[in-house]
Every structure is written in structure tokens, then in C-alpha cells.
Amino acid sequence: MRVLTEQELHNLAMNIVGKKLEQMGYEFQAINSQLKRHPQFVLFKKGEPTIFVLVKATKNIQNPEEYDVLWMETFKEHAKKQNAKVWFAGVGIANAESTDLPVFKDQPYYVAFDDFVKIIP
Fold it and tell me: In 10 A of CB 67, how many CB atoms?
């Protein structure tokens, strides 16, 4: 069994978030799946402002929506200059057998993702 890399976990979280955004009727203006590059999604919906979506994969399935407040302030300034909204998607991903174990390729896992935290609604 092979442990998923940080990039693979990030890609998994992006797929989960991307599907939800599509269900909500958004079109993707841009997608960036590189780790530590933000935003991951730039969304477009006719008649609405641009939305930047930040995606973070975490092992914390109890509170996946926690984020670095200081870092977010910096990003909010960037978004305001672009007249964009900011949504945060914290996606908890953990081994289905035990949260103490890493997530393995092709093995069951648990996902904790309910909704977006609207930083700039």
C-alpha cells in the first residue's frame, strides 16, 4: 500500500470541491491545482462578482474549516482589489479505518466537507 502524497490529497480535495461548485451552477474561469498557489478556483456566474475559492486538504475531520487567519487577511486584500468574493473550502480527508493512519492509495477514506466558509460574502 502506498500513502497518498500531499499533492494527491490536495487534488482529491479539489475534485470534491469542484464537483460541488459544478452542482451549484458555477463555471470555472481558472483552476490551479498546484500546492500553495491560491486561489484554486476562479468562478464565474453571469450577473455575479468573481469568486476566488481557496481549497485546503486537512487531516482534521472534526474542524476542516479552520484556516490561518493572518494569511487569509493578506489574501482578502488581494481579492478586494479585484472586487472578488472569497470562499474557503476546508476538506477533511482521513483513513476510513483509523484517523491515526495515513490515507492510502485505492483504500477507503472519510471526507468531511459540508459547505464553503464565505470569508468575503
Answer: 17
- What the block records as the C-alpha cell of 60 is 482534521
CATH of the domain at 26: 3.40.1350.10
17-48 confidence digits (pLDDT tens):
999 999 999 999 999 999 888 899 999 888 89
Structural domain range at position 37: 6-120
Domain count, the chain: 1
CA distance 104 to 1: 6
Q: Which residues contact 112 (CB under 8 A, 6 or more apart)?
A: 61, 62, 64, 91, 92, 93, 94
pTM of the model: 0.93
